[in-house]
Amino acid sequence: MKSERDSGFPGRDAIVAFIRANPGKAGTREISREFGLKNADRAELKRILRELADAGTIVKHGKKIVETAVLPVTVMADITGRDADGELLAAPSEWDEVEGGEPPKIRIHIPRHARPSATAGVGDRVLLRVEKLDDDDGAAYRGRVIKVIDHGKRRVLGVFRALPQGGGRLVPVDKKQAGRELNIASADSMDAKDGDLVSVDLIRTRGFGLASGRVKERLGSLSSEKAISLIAIYAHDIPLAFSPAASREAEEAKPASLKGREDWRDVPLVTIDPPDAKDHDDAVHAEPDPDPNNKGGYIVHVAIADVAFYVRPGSALDRDAVTRGNSVYFPDRVVPMLPERISNDLCSLVPGEPRGALAVRLVIAPDGRKRSHSFHRVLMRSAAKLSYAQAQAAIDGKPDDTTGPLLDPILKPLYAAYAVAKRARDERDPLDLDIPERKILLKPDGTVDRVIVPERLDAHKLIEEFMILANVAAAETLEKKALPLIYRVHDEPTLEKVHALQEFLRTLDVPFAKSGALRPSLFNRVLTLVAGQDYEAMVNEVVLRSQAQAEYSAENYGHFGLNLRRYAHFTSPIRRYADLVVHRGLLRALGLGEGALPDSETAESLSEIAAQISVTERRAMKAERETADRLIAHHLADRIGASFQGRISGVTRAGLFVKLDDTGADGLIPIRTLGTEYFNYDEARHALVGSRSGAMHRLGDVVDVRLVEAQPIAGALRFELLSEGQVLPRGRKRDHIGRSPPRAKDRPGRAKASSKPDKTRKPARKKSGKAKRGKSWKP
Predict the structure, then answer these.
(1) The Cα angle at residue 376 between residues 371 and 381, in degrees rounded to 5
(2) Confidence grade of residue 747 (pLDDT, cut at 50, 70, 90)
(3) Measured by CB atoms within 10 angstroms of the end CB, which terminus of the chain is less buried, N or C?
């Protein structure tokens, strides 16, 4: 093997110097080109880069490599304080301390005449443009505020509970503040009524008793559970009302005509959506390819609502849409990205009505690979609106009055085209995790009726695969035309997470032999090995947590989960701003008319938008999850003392998180309640282990619990464990289990770190005390 000391191979210092001189631009290919390395040298180069990463000298961002603690040009950051000169200091909002050490400091200078959108203060979350400082005088970077994303939380949000003698109490909505009520005097209540959601300023704290607050804003009544989503909406500053200008533009919009469009009204496109879908922005059609050179192949049409025709760059509608970033879906309501006049009317592909669309014609070969594609701006007319279950029932031999006439001419060709496309998908072998998604069904009064896990049908997979093909085609077209775009990217798991997964699988005697580049197929082999085993759900969960989070980026580093080199969101411009940007790019690239991406829009400006909408997407996910937690907590509040079965969904030094089987509700079992013995936290096994008995409570274990407390406003549940822990067979190696017993002064049940340094593990990332639940990448 060639050594780095050989005269023809660059040394480590030279490689690191090149990476330092090209921040965010250096990858394996660029390094090879710089030092004239041949293909035969690639293995040695990758070995050196891997060693540099293990040593913490470099870190990988997508396919690019940077020095540790190097930030991208555009970054989301939180302003943490001021330096001695009064200038603001910030830190990246997301930073992996395992990979990068302590987050770098960013010094922010705000000009005296800064525009209002760039005026920030301590506690604010901001979008910054940063540059590295050569002289590190207390800060590694200089930053300029592009936009304030979220102002600091200087107030407490909660529900007002009136007292008979006047005044009341504030019940905070934040789980971290659960149980810390505030006293509200009558004079400070702003005439709030019992059940009102209010914003309160803290006005006095005491060494004993309740702190006091003053109501500053009444936000709405929570007397009905139909309004429970208001808590998340206001807690996360999700815009609820559109600006008057945007509403006016929406009301004045006129339906699209045939002008500048191809006439596709006779193409029998159909929409297939959930039964409760409020808008229908994608329609599909398939037919056998008549080309004799593609015998056995299919032509698939995917038509997407032409939102760009109505929402023009720089308009009031556009400004509101980019601020929202995406629609937010709650069990009782939708907070749309666009006004209903646009999303539910003019851009909803309802049957029998002419609608403007941007469509892609995909030619699929018999082996499932895409042979070619073309984009068209069309006027279409949906032939039918179907639900997933309705379409599947027809294919399974149970058509109804709507699907009966559609079965042979429309549905069977769609399923046949999917069967062909699935061949290429199976060969591509994307990540295939089995994580059930629950759906809360409400009664007419807004209370929880039941929680279901919808069956995943071929109808779902058909639409998903056709949408993926359309998204890939959009990215390929824009790349070919050398136009900037917003990619949907999903990085491969970090080395640290892969090592942690290997350690965990080793405790189950499940092989995980990594050789060469990471591929989704490596994880799929593990999932296949554990299929049908008692620990199948646990392994699926741990594999999911090892994955990175998908995001939007103007730089392409591929989509690991889908195993695609280039991917962009094109198919839902009604509810995602990224898709609208891609539509505009296609209009500009192909000269398809009005609403195109402006020439002033560059990769640099799109990177700012990508960073912002990645944040709004995560905001929406968190708000949706918290609302589900609150609804379920309300549902279970009158069942204190009842017993339930569930699975351990998280293990931390604070205790065990348990997800109930019937509702999917999450609750905590504090470690102090587990028993009278001392429990060690075993990170490799994802378990808490009794030091005397060896009884182990492990991620994925089926357990019986008793509900002992419910805090509906915070969405918090507390359980008591009824099940016994599993005990390892005598003589089996316990890895980190069974360390020294606790000293007399240690409280029973309290997890305690070993006094000896554990050289087998790297420092864990700092956490807020609660387990990460359901972290996922969304395609």
Answers:
(1) 115
(2) very low
(3) N
